[in-house]
Amino acid sequence: MSAWYALWTRSRHERMVCHELATRNVEAFLPTVTRWSAWKDRRKKIDWPLFPGYCFARFDNEARFIVLNCSGVATIVSFNGEPAAIPDREIENIRRLVTSELRYDPCPFIREGALVEVVRGPLLGIVGRLVRKGSHAHLLLSVETVNQSVSVQVDASDVAAL
Questions:
Q1: Residues 110, 77: one domain?
Q2: Could you tell me if 32 and 67 are in contact, meaning their C-beta atoms sit under 8 angstroms apart?
Q3: What is the pTM for the complete model shown?
């Protein structure tokens, strides 16, 4: 049975890992965020990994060594020597966010805050943690296995406590 796993990559090798996994017929997911990069002579929008150092892949135990032999893969995120599976819902939440038109930013993983579900809008049904940044409400979508989160501004009236 295949599951999603987080792959810890060598520094700045996330895209290469994602591409190589695809050539080996392993489903891979690399969420990105667009940012401006500046050089001396120009500025350009660049897609940066949302969770630097990590790429996600869906595979079964038999494909584990195929994944580990990809260039740029440091290891599979594991606990007590066993690869830590990521719930499908967490990956699907991040996938829906990055394909939406909403603005989002990576942020530190935060355990505090109430669990909420979005009850209207493009993120309908997504569950996350509600936090405040100044006068704005933000929904944190987390991938707990790698202690990473992404924040998106929401209207507090669009969420309901679980």
A1: no
A2: no
A3: 0.78
